[in-house]
Specification:
By secondary structure, the chain is an alpha/beta fold. It has a single domain, classed as Vaccinia Virus protein VP39 (Rossmann fold, 3-Layer(aba) Sandwich). It contains 8 helices and 8 strands, in the order αβααβαβαββαβαβαβ. Helix 5 links the parallel strand 3 and strand 4.
Length: about 240
């Protein structure tokens, strides 16, 4: 079912212009945009400081980043969300909370290179990305080799991807793609809410609803090649029921 357009969408988007860095596609063809269009962000201009930059792709209503930005005021956060209806809620919540260290891009993830300078991001968060199990949609999965090539360009040396999902099939797929792309998986958790990481985990609304049913949440951290981090756990999760 298609989401109903929010009332007064455009005036409300305009009211959030101070936290919205980009919207839509710079040209009709995404491939052409990714190859030829560049409007790279100057983080000092955007945030007014030289703090580290982290990125969430698919920020939804913004619950994760609002909590994260509140905990880490010295870190700057970029939030990417394709759906305008959804990102509007995240932006309005950010402004209401008075948070100054979050900015938004209402764009397809395929053109992140158009705006984000290479090797400038420390962490990429993928929280409950749509699994897209159909084989025909593999290239659209946010952990496909297509997107991992983009992340490799955006991440600093030693930067990392942090993924959470409720889909074991998507998790297994992602672990395999991380390895193929040259990332080192340093942490695999097959039951996040009963793990040592649970205390510091930021629980999203979707995550809470899913976990309330007693079903496990899967988490992995994949580090860009060149990090001094050592591999701590196997990427195999054949023991998961």
């Amino acid at each position: 079912m298609r989401m109903r357009k929010k009332r007064h969408l455009e005036p409300r988007m305009q009211a959030c212009a101070d936290v919205l860095l980009a919207r839509g596609k710079p040209c009709k063809n995404l491939k052409e945009a990714a190859e030829n269009y560049r409007f790279l962000l100057d983080y000092r201009t955007v945030f007014g400081n030289d703090g580290p930059v982290e990125l969430e792709i698919g920020c939804g209503n913004g619950g994760f980043l609002l909590e994260k930005a509140g905990r880490e005021p010295e870190t700057n956060f970029l939030a990417v969300e394709l759906c305008t209806n959804v990102i509007l809620t995240a932006m309005e919540r950010t402004k209401a909370a008075g948070l100054k260290n979050i900015r938004f891009l209402n764009i397809p993830a395929e053109i992140l290179e158009c705006y984000i300078p290479p090797h400038s991001v420390g962490v990429i968060y993928l929280n409950f990305s749509t699994p897209l199990p159909e084989k025909s949609r593999e290239k659209q999965r946010l952990t496909s080799s297509r997107f991992l090539k983009i992340y490799d360009i955006l991440l600093k040396k030693g930067g990392r991807i942090e993924q959470k999902t409720d889909s074991v099939e998507f998790f297994e797929y992602s672990l395999a793609r991380f390895a193929e792309a040259g990332f080192t998986v340093v942490d695999v958790t097959c039951d996040l809410h009963n793990s040592s990481y649970a205390a510091e985990n930021i629980v999203t609304e979707y995550e809470a609803n899913f976990a309330a049913k007693g079903l496990p949440i899967y988490r992995a951290v994949a580090v860009k090649e060149g990090s001094p981090a050592k591999k701590e756990t196997s990427t195999e999760i054949h023991h998961v029921v």
